[in-house]
Model the fold of this input.
Amino acid sequence: MAVDSLTPPVEGPAFSPGLEGVPATHSAICDIDGRQGLLTYRGYTVGDLVGQSSFLETAYLLIWGELPTAAELRAFEHEVQMHRRVSFRIRDMMKSFPSQGHPMDALQASAASLGLFYSRRALDNPEYIVGAVVRLLAKIPTMVAAFQLIRKGQDPIQPRDDLPYAANFLYMLTEREPDPMAARIFDACLILHAEHSLNASTFSARVTASTLTDPYAVVASAVGTLAGPLHGGANEDVLTMLEEIGSEDRVEAWLDQAIASKQKIMGFGHREYKVKDPRAVILQKLAEELFDRFGHDPLYDLARRLEQAAATRLGPKGIYPNVDFYSGLVYRKLGIPEDLFTPIFAIARTAGWLAHWKEQLGANRIYRPSQIYTGASGRDWMPLQAR
Ligand code: SDX
Done:
């Protein structure tokens, strides 16, 4: 039976694949100008925040909407510091994970397990909201670092209360106190990855939040979404791609072949930006700072050659480097394993997910979009023996 004769004319907004261009909420958290390549958090440019702020101060701004006073920032930093430790039950659970498992799967499982330890759904209690914000910001880095040591067969090490947020994470990960410049650059990377309006994982967070489940489930849902190679997982794939190209003189041929075979070039393109991602511009400068201090990385020269070659071939389509193109080169110079690049993205984006969780609760209506039905209907039952 022809479907279209049974499908009534569709009322309401037209269907847009991937909801491209479809507003799904009002939000005051982050604004992106994809044509100018501008990104602001609560009205402040990321360039100012990277130059003047810290990740925790930026997280405070994103979540509560205003920059903290000195006293408010000290109290917030202290609260996060006091909640960095993770229950031995979660550490023991992580010890049962297969060591070859991807750290994003370990993070999603351990983030969800936090919901077992804290009262669920006291969402009308401001203290519960603050507690969840502090616990998730504090414990996500500890869990990422813990799985790194556990999968190497070692016991995780406890956070150091005398180290600030970024330095403490690098210490828990490498068991060495980081160089102050490395810690500063890592903190800047966290600021750059903290928030980006209604990207796929943040949309996941808002949809999950709209059912009034607990914030740990909200973050676990977002972590799972971020893991995909078209989203947060691209940073890991960029290095694999650069290593596959191998040398600068192979860039043009590799790129022409990739474009001819309709391959997506990892670290390039963006739904919003039609120019180079402003975060990629800053990350490139941070990478160069690290190379000047700690030695060059020839993969960087290859990356720049690929960017130049892509500019002529893909630039006319508005396809330029995004946040993931240079971030991996920064993390690699900091000695971070490639499969931890996306968990680090998750550490930073927890600030944005929490800001959107709080905003969603402030004016909530459960997400339930419609669809355009294209399946069959009105069919007569077919007994098994007649099929
Ligand atoms: C992040 O949304 C966010 O804000 C995300 C993020 C954040 O901070 O949260 O910025 C983080 O996810 C960055 C993106 C990381 N992903 C990658 O680098 C993977 C490679 N990029 C692509 O898969 C793609 O660009 C997306 C997923 C990022 C965007 O996809 P869209 O907007 O759905 O674009 P599309 O796939 O519909 O492509 C439109 C056209 C197509 O060509 P035509 O069929 O029209 O001829 O552009 C082409 C695509 O083939 N295209 C690419 C390309 N990206 C788009 N061609 C080659 N290489 C690419 N990377």
About this structure: DSSP finds 17 helices and three strands in the chain. The first helix runs from residue 3 to 6. The chain has two domains: 27-227+338-362, 234-333. The two ends are 17 Å apart (CA to CA).
